[in-house]
Each structure stands twice: as C-alpha cells, then as structure tokens.
Amino acid sequence: MLTQPIDAPSFPMPRSGKCPFDPPPAYGEARKKGKPQLVKMWNGMPCWILTSYDDVRTVLSDNRFSAMPSQPGFPTLSAAREAVLELPPTILRMDAPEHGRMRRMLTKEFMIKKIDAMRPRIAEVVSDLYDQLEAKGPPIEMVRDFALPLTSTIISEFLGVPLEDREFFQEQSRLKVLLDVDPSIPKQAAARLMAYFEALLRKKAKDPYANNDLLSRLVIDQIQPGHLSFEQAVHNADLLTMAGHETTANQIALGTLTLLQYPQQKELLLAHPELIRNAVDEMLRYHSIAHFVGARVAMEDVEVSGQLIRKGEAVYALLGAANRDPAAFDSPDKFDITRSPDHHVGFSYGIHQCLGQPLARAELQTVFSTLFKRFPGLRMAVPFEEIVFKTDHFVYGVEALPLTW
C-alpha cells in the first residue's frame, strides 16, 4: 500500500475555463503517459486515476477491484461524500456475488420491452409540460420548469412515490450529492430520505396489491418471501428515486444547452429525426454527467497498463476521460450527432452499469425529438458565460438554464 504524504496533483481536478463541457485538461495529460497516474485525495490519501478508455473498462469489469466503501483504502471525494458513503450499501456499492443477487431482483423492471411500453406516457408528460411552459410564457428556467418535473414525475409514477412529494425528494437528493459542504448537510438529507422511504414502504406493505408500481412489486416479490431485507429495500428505493430523476434532469439541461451552443447540430437533428438515438448517446458520451462513479479499491495486487496497483490501493476510473479518449472516439472533443457512440461508458461499465439506462434513453429521446419542434425559436435568455455549472456536485450539470423564445 502507498504511504503518505505524497507529492501528487490534488483530485478532483479543475475543469478548463475555456469550455465547461470539457473534462479537466489534466485527464488528457495523464492519458498521454500511457499508464495510471497518482493523485492526492482531499484527505491526503493517494489514489491512482485511470484515464484511457481501455483502462477504465478493464478496471470496472474486474472483480479484483471493490466498489464497497467499507473496504480499507476506498477513495472518497470529500468529507461530505465520505459521510454519505457510511450508510449501508445499495447495489451501486456492492461486489459480486451479492451485487448480482440484488440486481436480479430489479432487472426485470428495467427491461427494454417494459420501458418501451412507457414511451406513450413519457410523451404525454412531456407534451403537458410543453403546454405549461407555453402558458407561462418566456422566460423559463429549464431545470426547474421542465427537466426536474419531467423526470421526477416519470420516476414517481414508475416506483409508486406520491407525486406531491417530489419537491421534497428533489431537494433532499440535491443536498445529498453536494461535495464541498459540511458533512452534516448530506448526512441529514440522507437521513430524511431514509425516513421517508421507510414510511412509504411500510405503508405499501400493509396493502401491496393496491397499486401496480415497482415498490409494491418489490414488497410482494422480494421483501415478503425474505429475499430482501426491509432496510435494503429502503436504501435501494432511495437510490432508484434519486438516480431516476437527478441524472436525467441534468442531462436534459446540458443537452439543451449543447444543442443551442452548436446550432448546426440542432438543425441537423431537426432535418434528420432518425439521428435521435445517436444524438442522445452522443450527449451521454460528451458530458459523462455521472463523472465520479468510478471509485474502486484493489483487493489484491493487479497490474494495469504496466503499473502495479497493490492490494488496498485506491483507484478512480474516470468515465469523462474514457469518453474523450481519441483511441476510442475520433475527434472526441467534437460534439457530433452523426457518430455512433454507443460504446461510450456514460452509464459506467461492467456489473455496475446503470440499471435505469433504458428509461433515461427513452426520456431523453422523447425530449430531444420534440423540444425544438415545439419551440423552434428557443434560445438562451442570458449569455453562456453566466451559466453556473455544478462543479461541487457528484453529478455534473447546470444550476439553472434560463431560456426564452
């Protein structure tokens, strides 16, 4: 195991002021060296960062690297993030074989055929929100007025979370993913969410056949037969709710902003609607909004691209770096909806690849196949330079996106 202190760059690394869409320039510099590079975490702990597409996929698919924060040497981004990771693990932070056992309980809920059956409802919610935007009139704020209402409505209906509670879990989820705050803030938000979902699941358990939603089915199929503990169900309900609205809402805002910044790409999509699937996957590749999900710790000595990583040493597989690797994507810093980037790692890779990606794609494809048709004059209401990006969040995005038409 590496000893402290070390002389290495601090992590996380700053993004370039030149274009906030781009990952930190240091990622590209590290990639050119052809092997994992050493950085220093917030607490002085050393960590290897992986910046090449091949190295990121190798580590994320290797069971010799653990995703469990309870393992000695696991890296954290800040004291605030460390406080959240002290909670019992969800499937996102489990290793095989327990991860596979629990993931199988949920996989059928996110099958493509099942999600495709939801597309008419997604389109209906999108259309209703467009009507509300039109009735309100410009200017609008894309995150608050559209992206979050859309994603929280869909995930609430899917899981069986009362729609009237969406503002509560939106705010608590936002607080939970903050990095540069007092640890008590995300920890208290997490506690509020746990209490909320415990009460909700207990209510559903009293009459689980009353509603046809994911959480009710989880009670019937997994909790009652004893396959899943009540506590595990509570933590995973929180994960699914947060992941189901926070990440996609951020991608909707960033995707809208990107198309406005690259109007030729927007016009190309309008002229060729058949490019919608490529366009959405290009957004996912280009932004890599789940930019900090690749934390791991070596469970034994492993060599990666000629670098020996010893048991107990921390690694960070950087999705944003992998998705901008020129060895995997031609002209990777160019936003190009004509490319076929479906091999991107925007949803991570390996056994922890995002369970909800079919739902995220369905929502994003619905939005970006209709948004600029419904609002052809849509444009930014403030200069690009005034947009505040979420540099202090576990999930990347913008704080707000004022638009007009």
Could you explain the architecture of this structure?
There is one protein chain. By secondary structure, the chain is of the alpha+beta class. The chain has one domain: Cytochrome P450 (Cytochrome p450). The radius of gyration is 21 Å and the shape is globular. The mean pLDDT is 94. The protein has 16 helices and ten strands. The chain has a five-stranded mixed β-sheet with strand order 1-2-8-5-3. Strands 4-10-9 form a three-stranded antiparallel β-sheet. A hairpin with a 5-residue loop joins strand 1 (37-40) and strand 2 (46-50).
Total of DSSP H or I helical runs spanning 4+ residues: 16
Helix content: 40-55%
Strand order of the largest sheet: 1-2-8-5-3
What is the CA-atom radius of gyration, in angstroms? 21 Å
Helix/strand-derived category reads: alpha+beta
Shape assignment: globular
Task: Give the helix/strand layout.
Elements: H1 25-32, E1 37-40, E2 46-50, H2 53-60, E3 65-66, H3 79-85, H4 98-107, H5 112-116, H6 119-136, E4 140-141, H7 142-159, H8 166-176, H9 184-206, H10 214-223, H11 230-261, H12 263-271, H13 276-287, E5 295-298, E6 302-304, E7 307-309, E8 314-317, H14 319-322, H15 357-368, H16 371-374, E9 379-380, E10 402-404
Parallel strand pairs: 2-8
Antiparallel strand pairs: 1-2, 3-5, 4-10, 5-8, 6-7, 9-10
Helix pairs in contact: 3-9, 6-7, 6-15, 7-11, 8-9, 8-11, 9-11, 11-13, 11-15, 13-15
